[in-house]
Structure to design on (306 residues):
């Protein structure tokens, strides 16, 4: 277990460094210099633009900028945001907390709903639960989050709850949580249904039923644990999808999280802020992947002793 953790931590460091370098290169190729646009718009003189480029290091070669940024990051300094004129670290943590305040409940809601519906559907193949599960998988995986967010916004306006929904509180978080949980429920439910249905026809399950064990006992001992495996394995991918999907959802529903800040950073070509957001999102996904691997080893002895 310790070897696994150390290996994954080394992999996380390598992935973060590679991700940061790729973002540096892509932004440089895309012309991530806000002063150029500001000069064209007449908002800056050439002298002021040159001074700003010197302050933010935009006048230095790409590799040198990358190494300087790595040195600052090692000291816990994410740099200064061009858009907000404030340290990136002080901007990121409150926004990250707000994004997690909707992403984590959405993930838990999607996970539990998928497991509950999947178990009910698998135990009664011809019931309403089975048809409901298949309908949720189809609808949740085919409707884009932006459409769900627009529908939620229209419903909020219809119910005259716009003022309450714009507050950073329970009412304001309810709509983003529900919108983000729909595709997560479909994602988890599709895997849960497939695993439970295939496991229910396995030889050891048929043998347990032949021994006269109660159906509830068979389901709890021999079917439920394998059903948890895909939910644990894909936890990191689900979080990545939630974080990327939160960008349009937060923007449309007015939730001040990382997604909303990402739009502002891209629009203003704010490289320090974009790098900070990318690093935080990358670390979050890699950390949850590590946690999912550890939980999978606790859930499945075969993986534990591999």
């Amino acid at each position: 277990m310790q070897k696994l953790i150390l290996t994954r931590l080394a992999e996380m460091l390598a992935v973060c460094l590679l991700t940061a370098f790729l973002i540096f290169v892509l932004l440089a190729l895309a012309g991530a210099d806000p002063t150029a646009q500001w000069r064209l718009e007449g908002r800056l003189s050439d002298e002021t633009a040159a001074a700003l480029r010197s302050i933010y290091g935009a006048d230095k070669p790409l590799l040198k900028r990358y190494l300087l940024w790595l040195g600052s990051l090692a000291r816990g300094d994410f740099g200064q945001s061009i858009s907000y004129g404030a340290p990136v670290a002080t901007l990121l943590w409150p926004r990250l907390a707000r994004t997690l305040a909707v992403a984590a409940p959405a993930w838990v809601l999607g996970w539990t709903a998928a497991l509950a519906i999947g178990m009910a559907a698998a135990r009664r193949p011809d019931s309403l639960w089975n048809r409901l599960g298949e309908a949720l998988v189809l609808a949740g995986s085919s409707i884009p989050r932006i459409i769900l967010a627009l529908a939620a916004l229209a419903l909020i306006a219809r119910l005259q709850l716009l003022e309450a929904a714009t507050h950073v509180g329970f009412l304001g978080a309810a709509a983003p949580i529900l919108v983000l949980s729909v595709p997560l429920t479909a994602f988890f439910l599709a895997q849960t249904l497939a695993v439970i249905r295939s496991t229910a026809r396995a030889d050891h399950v048929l043998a347990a039923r032949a021994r006269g064990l109660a159906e509830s006992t068979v389901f709890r001992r021999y079917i439920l644990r394998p059903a948890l495996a895909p939910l644990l394995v894909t936890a990191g991918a689900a979080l990545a999808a939630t974080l990327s999907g939160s960008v349009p959802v937060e923007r449309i529903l007015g939730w001040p999280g990382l997604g909303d800040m990402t739009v502002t950073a891209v629009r203003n070509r704010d490289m320090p802020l974009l790098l900070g957001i990318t690093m935080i999102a990358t670390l979050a996904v890699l950390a949850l992947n590590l946690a999912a691997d550890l939980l999978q080893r606790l859930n499945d002895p075969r993986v534990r002793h591999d």
In short: The chain has a mean pLDDT of 78.
